[in-house]
Every structure is written in structure tokens, then in C-alpha cells.
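Table S5 (text form). Sequence records supplied for joint modeling of the two-component complex.
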Amino acid sequence: MVRHYRVYWVALLVLLLGVFVLSQQQNPSQQPSPSSQNPASPEAPTPGAESKSQEKQENATPNEKPVQQPPAIHNDVVIKGGMLLTVTHGRIENGSIYIHNGKIAAIGANVQAPANATVIDATGKWVMPGIIDSHSHIALDDDVNEATSPVTPHMMMKDAFDYNDKMIYRALAGGVTTSLLLHGSANMIGGQAIVIKHKYGLGRDELLFPGAPQSIKFASGENPKRVYGSRNQLPSTRMGNFAVMRQAFLDAREYMRDWDDYDAKAKKGDKDARPPKKDLKLEALADILRGKLLVQIHCYRADEFLTEMALAKEFGYKVRAFHHAVEAYKVADKIAANGVAIATWPDWWGFKYEAWDGIPWNAVISMHKGVRVALKSDSEDVTRRLNQEAGKIIHYGNVSEEDALKMITLNPAWIIGVDDRVGSLDVGKDADIAIWNSYPLSSVALVDKVLIDGDLFFDRSLPGLGMPHYKEGQ
Amino acid sequence: MLKKLLIVFALVAVAAAQQPNKSKAAAAPAPGNSGTIVLKGGKLLTITHGVIDNGVIVMENGKITAVGGASTAIPHNAKVVDVTGMTVYPGLIDSETHLGLVEIEADRMTVDTVETSDEIMPHMHVYDAFHAESALIPVTRINGITNAIVAPAAQDTLPGQDSFIELAGASAQEMLMVRDIAMPLNFTGKQRRNESFQNSKFPSTRMGMAAQLRQAFIDAQDYDQKLQAYEKKKSSGSSGGNGDDKDKDKDKDKDKGPGNPPKRDLKLEALLPYLHGERPVVLAAEEPNDLQTALGLAREFHLKVILNHVTHSSSLLNMIAATGLPVIVGPIYEQPKESERYDAVFKLPAELAKRGIKIAFASYDTHNARNLPYVAGYAVAFGLPYDDALKALTINPAQMWGVDKELGSLDVGKRANIVVANGDPLDVRTDVKHVFINGQEIPLVSKQTQLRDQYWK
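The corresponding C-alpha cell record, covering 931 residues in total, follows.
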């Protein structure tokens, strides 16, 4: 995580110095795919297997059409005349945004843009950054949960990603531009997530958020113990849950030590040194301990937040966020002290015992005690109207417009690890922008247009599905 | 540190101790005579006669006794509540919930939503299971929902009979305003017993569902005839007969007496009021084919119908309009069909209302039935006129359920179920400030507000 912060600051500096250089570097096609940073990925190079892995990559998707580029990434776009909700620096009335090469190049009341820029008239409209859903399971068909073992960190959601799922479009039409697609909650240590941009109509790899850090899903409490307990397997209790995790990390430590020993011997030129067997599962667990993965934990109960944080301390990794987190308000100060965020619903409760004490003031109490709070959907339905979920937080009181907006933009961006790229209307950020016909935190607001990387992906005024990049039957 | 932890654990323990079933908040104050209360200065959404700015509304003995402008006379001994700047509207009616039938969905012991041992279960009465002390009821009413339909869940074609409740009262007796108000008839395909090929049992297809329903209604008709024949014999026996063209037979029967009544069959007996058209059947269908099959069955037996869902039947909107039947619409949050535009279901209420169809909204929820008004708000976003949206939460359901003499608008003589909020009732940002049920102010307290107050320091 420390490494990640460094990236953040460096990126910020670069942004301040020169937006254009950076924006060219971040051209999607030149970015390494998220999985290539991860040794556990089947497509990633493993020592002594470079050529093989390359072959694999080339043959990865034989049936797929050649990668389609969006018809016209407009080099220069200006959104003119709207009420801008920047999320980081208040409202700008009658403001404009100049977009160059997919990035926000300028924003303000008076913005200079080239005369030939494409103009989007937003007079009378509300303009905000695209919504970010930090907990979603769309576009994974029924491959969400590898519920056959409580420890499956080597499951890669990318391998199940159905980029043609219409849910990506429907969420887009609700203003969502980025989602974290997570493994299910059957396993204490589940699979590794993908971060997508909702560029529906493009090819699979173009929907993957370039350069986004890799997240892994953990779960705790009732779900793992129910799934395995019902088969009379370990774990069937919360004791069992945590014992399974502890054993997994102890195994990973041993695996890491074996490799360290081998590396040390090899370095000394020991010809008899033999490499240990590569094990995808242990490799992925080692990545958690090495701090390479953002840990996203499905967790409801107050005591379990504390246990999870203690376990993380014991094994030296960091928890990025507690998801669902319906009892966060009970121990919010401790969650805040550990720098852990929460991704919660505004008002879901009572559907199981560990959700019985859920209250709609959870988000705002946690926020006031210093926790970074995101509102997420975990639902094919709610992901289409997260703006209303943020509106509900205003109903439940004591929150500013900006803080409510952050809960569906910048805060989920932080949880995913892309807050230096998206989540606010700031110079240098990706031009992921939703334009609304009325105040977005209300019941009656509709999305008029959505831009991703400066390109128009949804336009309500268009016939059919309202998507410039999509043709039926594609 | 240890001390702090101990405190935290103590607090958690206190919270846990509160969990089992009955929090104090669940026990509602007894409604009834509570003196005279006046709400003064608010914007009144009367539903039936427009909006009154700076209005006055008087409640006495549980009823509304005056509604008008600023000059409306205020009884001298009344308790006056200043609601200047607030919006005042009738309590909202949720046309489908499982309130009082479920506490924690994942815990079977707290779930009484449906009896799945058979598909034809019209003799299941939700009032027999209704749990008046449910913690969910205060959670719901403090967001302005004062009345609701409690329905059994939809796994059976005929899962039982609905009750109409008020969300406050000293006991289940008081809260159950109308028992057996209607009977769901579910025909969505989800009632098939086709879990797997090996475990299938009848009815595992829609043909099976339809045949089974038809047989049930035919059996009930037979039962009805036997009952009527018996009653006729009995009454002719006691009255001595008067000018009938079957005098001969009657004389013969008189000698024998009416005999034993037909053996009572609760299941068939439960269907009779519906066969007689005395109460409505709530006919649930989503797809156009299901809607037509189920409507055909309903016509065959002359059932009185309220339509439910019609979620994917947008191709039949004109047909629905021609029937003149009212519709409980939704959930509008259902996904559209694969090829449809994203808003195909969101705009269904607007499309129905445009054709003059009377619609009502339902939360189809229980823990979050409180979010009912936002369904209507979202339908407005997709083209439903605002006034129609408000009516679909108030006067329309009141009329559909036959309780419009008592509920559904701010009118003199109606039950004083009144909500005061700090803004538009359909908006997610709006906070409810007062709730009156049967003229009694309901404390804005629930299990959830108690937890909030315990931890928000």
C-alpha cells in the first residue's frame, strides 16, 4: 500500500506539471494489463516460461474479433454551460470542461478550448464525475463464487468476465463508469477482482481499467460458515473461519521461505539448488502477504472487523476496505484508526442475523468518526441508481452534498485504488463524466449522457439502446 | 486500551441482548381518542382537491374534521403543531409487503411467508401468522407508510389470503384492519415444482399450473352447489315451502329433512367469496403469455381481478386498458429483457397511466418497505405525471382495496393517517418529521433509531 501512495503522489505531481505527457502515456493500448503485474495470473510471465506465456497471450481469445477502437475518440471536447459538481472543489455554476485526449484538460467558469472542439451543450444540466461502484458482481454470469474450497485466491474474475453482459450497459445508463467486479462471499479468501470501465460495445480488453491495482476478495461470518458447514466441512463456525485463514497464511509464509532459500542459494551459484514447485494458490496468498493486492473484506459484524484487522496485523498485510460493513458504526473509530474504508449500502438490513443491526445512519456515523465511506450496490438493480442511494444519505442527515457525492465517486475510487485517475472533475483525470437532466441526488434525475475517457458511450436522446458504440447482434 | 475494548464489547453485548424479537419501539401507542390536534402552516397535498398552501388540518377522535386554508377555524382547546414549510400528506399505502410474516429472512424460524407443501392453499390466512410486534413495522411507519397489504409469498399459485393492516395499534387485532381482503393468484412460472428433472412433481409446467387451478375452482363450484342445495333444503324445510315448480320433490325432501350438511372443506370454502365475486383476486403475471392464460382462467370463473406486476407485458398495454382492471405495477426495478432499452420497465407506470389504467405502487419488500415512495419518484423521472404518482400511493390503492371511505386523502371524515415531511414525499432526500395514525402521533422511534442514538455520540 505504501508503494501505492507513492504512485499517487508521483502521479499528482506529474499531473500538475504536464497533463498531456501523462495522458499519452496512459493510452489504454500501451498500459500493462492489471493481471500482468500479478505473478499468479495464468497469463503472466513466470520465471523460465516467458516464451510460453507470450504464446498463451496471443492465443488467449482465438474466437474474438480484432480489437475494435471506438469510432472517433474526439481529441477535443468541450462540455459547456452546466452546473458542475466537481466533488473536490464544490459547484461551478455555468461552468465548462475542456477534454483533450480523453483527459480533463481544464475546468472552470471560463475555459479556453480550441475552436474546432466538439461542443456538448449542458445548459440547464448537472455535470458530475461518473459514478463508481466498488462492489459489483455483474458480467460474471453464474461464475461469481468458486464455492468448493474456503481458500481460492488464485481464481481470476477476468477469466469469467462476460463483457457482452447488458448489465454493463444498464449501469452505464445510470451514470456508472467504473466498477469493481468481485468474487462472491462463500470463501474466507476468495478470488481476484477486475476493475472495468463501462465502455459497452467495445472488445473485452478495452473494458478493463488500464493500470488499476489488483484487488482480492475476502469474506467472513455467516456465508463461509453456512456454505461449508452445510456440507459438514471446515469452516462451520467463526472459529473455523479464522483458523482456515490463519493456516492459509502460515502455509504461504513457508512457501515464501522456501523460495527465498532457493533464491539465496541460486544467487550464491549453488548448482544443486532446486526450485520449489510453483503453486498458484500459495503464490496468490504470498502476494497478499507481500502487499501486492488490495484486500476487500465482506464483513458485517463489529467483532469481526476487529478480528480481521488483528489478523492482518499478525500477518503484515493491510485491509483496504470492509464491504457491507453494516455494523461499522459500532467500532468506527477503530476502523478509522487503521485507515480502512467501508463500502456499504445506505439501508439494507435484517435479511440475516449479521445484518440485523444495520441502520441507515451507518454511513454518516462512520464518516463523522473518520472512516472513508463508499456506497456500493452489490446488486444488478441498485447499481443503476446509486445516485439515489447517495440522496438517501442526505435524508438520514448531517452530510454535505460533497460528502454524499464522494460516497459514490472519489471514495469508491480510493477503495479500488484508482482515485488518482477518476472520481472527481479535476484537471488530469480521465474524462469519465455523467450529465444529468436534473439534480442527481434526487428521485427524478435521469442520465442524459455519459462520457468515458472523453468519448460518448451513452446518450439518452438516441433511439434504440442509446449507445453510439453498440450495434445489436454485435 | 483493554478498558476501551471492554466497553466496546459491553456495548456490543447490550445490542445483542436487544436483538431477540421485541424491542420496546415495536409496541405502538394505543390509537384512539387523543384530543384534538391541529397541523398549521403546512403545504397540504390533499390528493382529491389539490394543494393547499399554508393550510390547516384538524384531527379529532382519530378522524379528520377540517381541511382548509389559513382561515380555517382552530378549535380553542386543540394542540397546535406548527408545520410551516413542511409538506403534509395522507399516510402512504403499500400494496404488497410481507410485514409481520418475516423478521430475519435467513432464519427459517422467523419466516411465515408461504406454505409450500401444496400449490392450492387459499385457506392460509396471513392474520394467523401476523406478528404485530415485529421490529420492521416501526422502521417502516416512521418513513410515512401507515397502511399496507400483507401478502403471502408467491411460491404457490394460490398461497393464501391477504390482510390489510394499519402500521400501529395495541395488538394484532387492532392492526389487522381488513382480514382476507383479497387472494393472490400467482401465474408467473415460479410456482412450478420443477427444481430438477429428478425432483419434479406436479405441476412442473404451466399446463400443470393451469389445470390444477381450474380443477380447484371447479371443485369449489361443486362444493358451492352442494352447500346451496343443502341450504335450500334446510330453508324450505323450515319455511314449509311457498309456490315452487318442484313442490312435489320438496314434499318428498321435507319428509327426509335436509340431511347432513356437506363435509366442511376449508380449502374449498376459502375460494367461495372469490367465486362469488365478493372479493378481488390479485392476479400476478409478468409475461404476456402468462397474463393472457391467467386472465382467461379468471374470466372462466368470473373472478373480480386486480392485476399485479405485468412487468414484461408492455406489448399488451392496450389490451390491459380495455379490460378496465386496476394494476399494482412493478417492481419497476426488475431488469428489462435482453434486447430492450434500459428504461423499458422503469417507464411502465407512465405507459399504464397514459392509457387511463388505474395504478398502485407496492414496495414488494419488507425490511425496506419504507422505500415505497421512491418507487413513485423514479416512475415520475420516467414520465409518470407527479399527481398520478402520488395517487398511486394513496387514493388509488384505497379505492382498489375498498377502504377509500377511510383512507387515501386529506378529506373530512377520513381516518387521520397523516404524514408531515420536510419536502417532496417522493424524494430520497426528504425526511419525515411527524406521523399520525388514527389521530395519534407516533414517536419516530424504531430499533434502528435506538441503535443510532446509542452509538452516535
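Note: The longest helix of chain B spans residues 206-239.
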